[in-house]
């Protein structure tokens, strides 16, 4: 049945059949003008199709190299030149024209992008997931009302039916040839890629069966269906890489290329931002082109169809070409001039809107710097990186995100507290200032990672040998922390990880947020490309930042260290004994660009401060090792225990002393900012009896040695942590890191964490403890030291 036979779906329909090209439409001179037969004469007709996908509002030129967006004016010139070379040219898109856009288009709700595509006379576009970022009403109302082209999708249906919710196909007639375009949208759209509230009443049908349904209808000889001579699929789904192996087989896209009806002459794909030009056989063995152009208008696709006088396809070819190096010079520049003006006007408006206040910060949010104090250090932990990671975790909480990571290269400038000009109060952050921090308009992607994959990603911060930047420090969100051994070998440096104070097991699954760049393995973080259940949230990083500012009266810079280097003296057989020396080497205790963080670091056990040392805040170039200290602790002698019973007046002899009871106490590092770090290394301390008791039982209450009042936790600071992170002041939940042992992160015997720090000090103080494990001394933290089993010592 024709779509026109479903009256309930026509509310979203636009013109099904498009007419011939407008007078201003036009070609690619670089391709050469084909020999085109008149529609009134017998002979073949050549149809050229210029295609883009995932344009994402890249209307401004970003440069002239192949890896930069060429901009709307360059694309307009290519399209116009192609139309001049062959009037039988069709301009198409495979979706995501809008959404995930850069600031110039984003700040105006992508209206400038729709306008320039109108000026280029876009003929038809598939519906991408980003067309539904703001819901179906925004697409059917604002976007479609402004757009002059039809949006099509055959497999977005009314929930509970097989009726298409949008126009499923469109026919464009050129030179007397009717080219039918069937649209389709990734089946992952619902649920996961867009807000559920915006797509209520919609559901996803299988792409293959939906496309095949309309392929049959458009070629069944019924003129009422808008009979097509040639069919092309515009599908917003694609292979994950440019490799042919990823475009065939049993995967989602392989099912499309292998099972979509061979009545479809070509498959033009999108969504994955990959670039490829394959020839793949359909279900009857007929080989057809399968292409995708990458993204952002860096490339364009060119299909050439040859249709005989009998209206049968007699030849087809395809290629993907770089847009920046195209030599298109159209004679009629009307459309190019109109696009150029639209882009210039949009930029002028964006410059004004960019001055509007977005939010407030209470202090600088800066990137890390090298030892010269000015050059960016992408190898250093930064307040800006951790803040942006937390913003992105917060923005994807509805998708279940638990941890977020931010690549340092995605941060292009700092957010500073001081006023940047007249009328700009201290602490105010403008739209433009936030946009300059993250100018790439990446979207936020959630995925499932195992603890092992998270560890692998952290290990990949140490980059492959020979690179200018040997280390790239990931920003991490609140609640996550880890320790590492800077002296260990590749792949063996991460010694512990926790989330909200609980250890992360290597086989545990965690929902993680990264930007779209990292999600594909950018910056050599291959572990992020291997995640399961990937879902693009549809949120641009800048929009997430704007929403975060709107939800917070003021944003405070994070001050806690979420990664600390720890190495300790190896634990001897039987554990440390009185008189033993224990050396604790620490690094990554300060930020390189967060003001004065000098002061003393202490190591204590129980209520005794055992060693103190100043922190060396010297910045170490290209790494995160600034903030170093080495402290040596001598395990104290336990002293003499109280007698089992008081001496009787009539007894002349002295009662025998009992053995001293000891308790294993962890070594606790205290930093000047109030952050506390509990090491997974213990030493024996004498147990001080409560008044009226002794190790052997109750006495008469005349204990001459009163229990001392616990001193403040070394390092000072308020209770707990500021915002669920580590250290700082205020209330909240701290993080714990325990050693990786026996293939899991947890206790060496596979049990629960035996010591949480709750007894170390007041509970509010203990909430902020970060349990860290040194690679050479990863031992169980136990309350009682009855015996030491060397076999249970964790290896880092």
Automatic annotation (TrEMBL):
One Pfam family here: 5_nucleotid_C
Residues in coiled coil = none
Query: Biased-composition ranges for Low complexity?
Result: 643-661
Q: What class of enzyme is it?
A: hydrolase
Endpoints of the signal sequence: 1-39
Q: Which Gene3D superfamilies match?
A: 3.60.21.10, 5'-Nucleotidase, C-terminal domain
Where composition is biased (Gly residues), the residues are: 714-733
Listed name of the protein: 5'-nucleotidase
Source organism of the structure: Curtobacterium salicis
